[in-house]
Amino acid sequence: MASRAKATILDIAREAGVSKSTVSLVLQGSRLIRPETALKVRKAIEDVGYVYNRGAANLRKAHSNVIGMVINDLTNPFFAEMAVGMERVFQSAGIVPFIANTAESPVRQEEVLKSLMEQGVAGLVVSPARGTTPGAFRRLETGGVPVVFVMRRLPESRIPVITPDNHRGAYLATAHLIGKGHRRLAFFGGSSDLVVYHERLGGFREACEALGIAPADRLVFEGETSRKGGIACLETALAMAAPPTAALCFNDAVAFGVLLALRKRGLEPGADFAVVGFDDVAEAEHYMPALTSVAVNTAGLGERAAHVVLKMIQSRTTRAEDHIGAVNLVVRESCGPDRKEHGCAGMGDAA
After folding, report:
1. Where would I find the H helices in 93-187?
2. Of 295, 290, 245, which Cα lies nearest the Cα of 267?
3. Where would I find the beta strands (DSSP E) of 189-290?
4. What CA–CA distance (Å, rounded) separates 348 from 117?
5. How far is CA 330 from the centre of its chain?
6. Is 69 helix (H, G, I), strand (E, B) or coil?
7. pLDDT (tens digit, 9 = 90+) per residue, 187-238?
C-alpha cells in the first residue's frame, strides 16, 4: 500500500494517455475538461492508487479553495435565491463557499473583504453595498484576486459584472401597464446612488416617452428597496391630489410592501391599483394576488457568476466579459383588468 500511495500525476497521465496538465485540471475540479476525459483520468487515479493531497496543492497554488460570496442583503429573497444558485456550482466543483451578509454597510463589507484577503481567498462574488466606492476593491485587484460583481456595478470599475437587462425589463413592465390603459404611472423604490436604479428608471421613462405619457404623469418616488420602502412609497403617492393608478416597483420586495399597504387601505391590488415587481422571486407566484414581475432567472445569474469566477481562478486572470442576462415579463393578477373602459378621466387627455 505504501508504494501505491507514492504514485504521481505522471503515473496517472501515462495510465490515462493524457497530459500532466489535464490530470491537474481534473484534480482541481475544472470544467474545462470534457466529461469522458475526466472519467478516464479518475479511473486511472483509482488504478494507480494516487492520493491527492489537497492541503499541499493549496500551498502550491498560494491560495485556499475558499471563494467568498459577499451579499448586500440576504433578507431579500432575491439575493438568497441567487446565493443558492452560486453555492450549487461551487459545491459541484468541490469549492467551499463562504457567505457574508453586509446589510448594505460599506464598513461591514470592508471588514469582510479584509478578513477574506487575510485567509488567502481564491476569488470573490460580490453584490456591493450601497455607498461602495471603486477604491474599496483596489487592494483585491492589485493582489490579483478574481472578483465578479453581481446585480450592481460600480462607476469607473473594471471588475466584470453579471446583471440582468434592467433597462429592457423596466421598459417591458411599463409598456404593459400603459397597454392596460394606465395614464398616470409611478416608479417606486430605489435610490439615485445605485447604477441599477438609473437603469430601471431609464427603462420606465423611455417607455413612458415612447408610448405618449406626459412628463407630469411620470412620478418617481425614491425609497428603501424593501417592503417598508414599498409601504412608504404608496402612502406618499396616494396622498397626492391626483395619485397614480399603477406602479413599477424597483424590486419584488418593494412590490410586496405596496400590495400589503393597498390591502390595509381597503383597496384591491390589480382592480384599484396595478402593481408590477422586478426579479420574479419564488414568492411572487404565490402572493395574493399573484405578482406580475420581470423575470431575470435569479438562480441562473448566480450560477453564471460562479462559473465566471471559477474560470478566472483557473485562468489566473482578473479580467472577464460582462454578462447581461435576458429578461421577460411574467403577467399575473396584480395588474388587474384593462382600464380603457373606465376612460381614465382627465389623465388620458394629458397623454
Report:
1. 106-118, 138-142, 166-179
2. 245
3. 218-221, 246-249, 274-279
4. 57
5. 18
6. strand
7. 999 999 889 999 999 999 999 999 999 999 999 999 999 999 999 999 999 9
